[in-house]
Amino acid sequence: MKTAMVLGATGLVGRTLVNILLQDRRYSEVTCLVRKPLQSSQFSDPYNRLKPVVIDFNNLQDYQGYFSVDHVYCCLGTTLKQAGSKSAFRRVDFEYVHIAAQLTRAQRTGSFVWISSVGADAKSSNFYLRVKGELENAIMRMPQLPHAAAVRPSLLLGARSESRTLEDVAQKTAPAWKMLMQGPLKKYRPVHASDVARNMMTRQKW
């Protein structure tokens, strides 16, 4: 059986992913590094596999030992509005994820999968997409981390604890988007969190 670790377990995709992992009999333990205690009501853990660990993400390197698992899933991410500044956004969406990849490499973990974004490009004029692209470049060029993969979703569909305007609009107009976005535009269709989570699982090295 495999062991997994999830960073960003309380976000839309992270929460969905953890619940899927807890039901998957291929996993014996699912460790979640979190900022504060998890709400048990958000997770179904019939086999007692969930292992939440409250940490200080500003000192993520101090928790290297937890990365000694088979699969690392990184669902960390925020928005400029939530972060409050570009530097705070970059700290979460670039620095934390990059450090997680480094710790994965240090522990010789089987594989590392993280959430990027459709349109990620280190040369983009859009700050959000530029940071995502810079992160992809930094991780994919990292030596001795051969099994790393980025998942690139568009707008996410699912029930969030907080409101995000664009995603709220996407929820209501998803059927129309699917009809209009064909061919090359298909990758920009809104996608359900459960589909992103399952995609992350298929990208792991089994």
TrEMBL record:
Superkingdom to which the source organism belongs: Bacteria
Signal peptide location in the record? none
InterPro entries this protein is in? NAD(P)-bd_dom, NAD(P)-bd_dom_sf
Transmembrane domains' residue ranges: none
Q: Which Pfam families match?
A: NAD_binding_10
The segment(s) forming the NAD(P)-binding domain are: 8-127
Please give the name of this protein: Nucleoside-diphosphate-sugar epimerase
Q: Which species does the entry assign this protein to?
A: Alteromonas naphthalenivorans
